[in-house]
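Notes to self after the Tuesday call (sharing in case useful).
The group wants a holo model before anyone commits to mutagenesis around the pocket. I volunteered. Ligand is flavin mononucleotide. Logging inputs and output together so the record is complete.
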Amino acid sequence: MVDSSLPKTGSMQHRVCVAPMMDCTDRHCRYFHRLLSSGVGLYTEMVTAHAIVHGDSQHLLGFAQVEHPVALQLGGSDPDLLYKAAAIVRDGHPYDELNLNVGCPSDRVQSGRFGACLMAEPERVADCVRALRESWGGAVTVKCRIGIDDLDSYEFLSNFCATVAAAGCGLFVVHARKAILSGLSPKQNRSIPPLRYEVVHQLKRDFPELTVVINGGLDSVAVASEQLDHVDGVMLGRKAYADPCLLADLDRELLGGAAMPGVDRAAVVREMASYAVGQLALGARLHQITRHMHGLYAGRPGAARWRRFLSEFAGRRDAGPEVLLRSLEIFDAAA
Ligand SMILES: Cc1cc2nc3c(=O)[nH]c(=O)nc-3n(C[C@H](O)[C@H](O)[C@H](O)COP(=O)(O)O)c2cc1C
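Result:
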């Protein structure tokens, strides 16, 4: 039996958050996003329990204090392995939440029996949640789809959530489209199955005690704000990555953040140059940091030129923070 006094949602902020995205939301990206919003909840890329237990956990789990509130997303389906991974996380990596990935449809993930295919095994997911909570002691949440393949009825979803909630999961992030596990690539699975927001709204109505965060296709403050009439939180992925200044707007409009008239993009670039000094000394390459920043000037005159400059010069072997500072001159000249 899991101790019922353990927290179910923790200190993470879920009203607005940025989705976990492999190869995108690494620590450099999260640092950058945090400069644009002090309030949105941030998620790591998925890290497998196997990699934490058998790999370089310091490298995989390290993050900066300024990233808080930040959740670690885990991939796995073996409760014992997840238990061990969570113990490693607990000892030295103070994330605000552990989130289990039950929504990712990639082949690689299916062969390890985790991700979206686990929705067919709610009892196993419940065992994983119990193991994580016992080991870690903090809030454990689940990110899932509204269904998989022909397991796509509302009853299926509600039974899944009820079973997993009984294990102590108090929060579900629900990507409002089902996953089709054979025949579609992960990318196609993020656009071809139709979005069915009403299913997620129904879930919140039927489980008012759960925190329900909706995800999928949200691309503006207005759209996100409308969703908050039905659910507790919104999670944005691709749009937030492509146009990160949206995070500042969301912070201001939906989280009551500091009423900035607009983002000072040049100040963000200068801050990232300072950040790069420390990270380069630790062995990072400039491109690993700047690649997340390409959307900073999205939609502004001079954006394409700025992005081209950054791509070309930050990729050079000896590139240093001066490339970022020089990019400001390029932008001013182009704009
Ligand atoms: C490049 C990329 C990588 C992703 N990696 C993950 C992941 O590691 N874990 C996960 O749960 N979802 C992952 N997703 C799915 C997103 O978290 C999100 O559910 C999906 O993109 C739908 O939200 P959006 O329409 O706001 O982008 C990924 C999405 C993208 C585009």
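Two things stood out.
Residues 19-24, 45-46, 73, 101, 103-104, 143, 175, 190, 215-218, 236-239 surround flavin mononucleotide (CB under 6 Å).
The two ends are 62 Å apart (CA to CA).
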